Amino acid sequence: MSAAWTAVLVVGLATVAIKAAGPVLAGDRQLPQRTGRMVVLVGPALLAALVATQAFASDEELVLDERGAGLLAAAAAIALKAPLIVVVLTAAAAAAFLRVVA
Amino acid sequence: MRHLVLHTAANVLRLVESTRTDTKQPSSGYAAGARAILPLSPAVFLFGASFGVLARSAGFDPVASIVMSATTFAGSAQFAVVSVFAAGGTVVAAIAAAVLLNARYGPMGLAAARAFRGGAARRVAESQLLVDESWAVSQEGGRFDIRRMLGAGLVLYAGWVGGTVIGVLAGGTLGDPATLGLDAAFPALFLALLVPLIRDRRAFAAALAGGGIALLLTPLTPAGVPVIAATCGVLFGLLPERGERPERARAERPRAISSEAPS
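Predict the joint structure of the above. Result:
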């Protein structure tokens, strides 16, 4: 088997297992109140981390590039209560515009 | 695999069904999830296509690229594998990078676990549609709406796998999605979905900590670690509710917020 196929199969199986672990193993268990209060915060904590890494991480470096400008434009659109599609398009348009200009 | 196919087919049917009846329930269910993710689907499609192009140039055979998109179904991990191979890295390094990147689906799946229904096979199948974007649009305050996740996940899956097929076939003739600014669409989506979740000081502190930890660790650790470590932000859930033991809450509040101020 080629190295590529080995990686495809091992990563595929590992990902299936990682994604299924929570829903299969912890599914119907009633969580203690303290745990429940922490689980609710996985959303804010991980979403903020995704915003940070997707906007400012490039490989293993922090960079300030057009994605950061797009994020700023998106923040303005969110503050103006724009619908989701407008927020996403504003960010893409801002980044694309800056890349054309640069 | 057969279960996955059956469940995917069943979910497509349910999605079609819910589109027909969605005048009754405009804000919940499969169609709502599909609609919520639609703005992002062109970006997902084009990134799927660029994965196909890159995988091919890194020496993946066409079927392997498509099988990877269909089974791993996680952009960052797939790009990591391809870039390790393209740089002449070993298969072990490629697998380690991808598994590290996908480890974040552990806490995400845990947070969503109670919304899943049915036996183990159904849970395994449905959990495969869990990706950052489908998980993000299914956050309803403290609840997780599994139907939204499945509706959004199916749209993303079709876009990602379809994009990969096109990329593998078209090769280098496709442009770079970055010139269209599509890489900036993803952080914008996550920010737009994060803001409504900040409903109390603990959620605010958790977000600040999560973002701060991720930024801090990005230059210091391999990719994937910053987002997993950001899960530590949930420890703010141990702080008392506003109103319960108020003197302690007052004392902790400024510290909780100011200690993460650099993010």
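The longest helix of chain A spans residues 3-25.
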